[in-house]
Amino acid sequence: MAKHAGGRPRERRVDTVIAAAVRAVIGEAGYAGLTVDAVAAMAGVSKAAIYRRYTTKQEMTFAVLLPDLDERTPGDTGSLTGDLRALTEQIAAQIVGPGPDNLTGLLADIRADPALRARFATTYLTVERGIIGTVLDRAIARGELASRPDPALVHALLLGPLIAWLVVLDEFPARATELAHLVGEIAGGALTARLLPVETWS
Amino acid sequence: MAKHAGGRPRERRVDTVIAAAVRAVIGEAGYAGLTVDAVAAMAGVSKAAIYRRYTTKQEMTFAVLLPDLDERTPGDTGSLTGDLRALTEQIAAQIVGPGPDNLTGLLADIRADPALRARFATTYLTVERGIIGTVLDRAIARGELASRPDPALVHALLLGPLIAWLVVLDEFPARATELAHLVGEIAGGALTARLLPVETWS
């Protein structure tokens, strides 16, 4: 995150210019071509101005790209399947946004830095899991679910195939809609009994 | 792949020494610490000996680690769920083997090199999808499935959550067994009708 978050207007303007430059450099040179030198040149600022804000290139990338993920609870569509479809489309858009190569590079950077990994978990994954919990609770309130499936399992079933299709299988994003249908059926349909209790499964 | 595949005994011995050194360097220094220098030092061979075999570090890594994946069709367990569980355990072991950081680094390297990506698809993903097709065909022959679910969708549902749990969610591998149950139920149970035809879904 920016060291100067909430700073003076001029500082905030420089933050915006740097963020735009990060996106532009990734767009032109890919994640592998993203360097502090390239961002400084694109933004027309000194490298020192960047390092005053971010300790490392990875910090900079993370701070710029993570807010782009725009994690929101979908509006109530009136059904579990509808809510899950909206959430799947949101996650799919987040994952497709940076492109497969950038996503893989970003994940590798996050994994390589325990501090970034912890921050990614709290600012993104925990929020996303909370949204899934909200969507499941709505379904219980509607009478669609007799019991609450494990949000962690639903999370992996939504996020996992999307990542696999994009990063490994090269088959994204045609299947996002079918995935939403499928997970909705899993959570809301005949398999709910199989989703609880988790403890007895392994 | 090794340029000298099937070469003289001495060449094959050097291949084995290099392969062992790649695994040892990764074990000690992680994927980020894997360099041709480090492998040459560990193996007690010259860098030239390595570059005679592999054009790049990524070629070397890929050639050593991919055969370790040991892609096999599981023995017939007598049920679709049993076959899928065996396959899930095999894929889980492959993914856990290198460790999350190494897996992420390897995937990033594969993505960054179109030739490696194509080779990964033909030597690993296509084989794995063929195994899934065989498992589904067995289930049809047993009368467990009235129709054949799309192997590509089953593939993503098996592989995706395993990758997400390990690389993104930090929750692997406790859930491999429940995943196998779940995908078995999806493929064989109440949702089969939902899996076909894929065309009408999106």
Automatic annotation (TrEMBL), chains A, B:
Keyword Transcription regulation: yes
Stretches assigned to the HTH tetR-type domain: 12-72
Residues annotated to bind DNA: 35-54
Keywords, ordered alphabetically: DNA-binding, Transcription, Transcription regulation
The protein, known as: TetR/AcrR family transcriptional regulator
Leader sequence residues: none
UniProt superkingdom: Bacteria
Entries under InterPro entries matching the protein: Homeodomain-like_sf, HTH-type_TetR-like_transc_reg, HTH_TetR, Tet_transcr_reg_TetR-rel_C_sf, TetR_C
Gene3D superfamilies membership: Homeodomain-like, Tetracycline Repressor, domain 2
Pfam families (UniProt xref): TetR_C_11, TetR_N
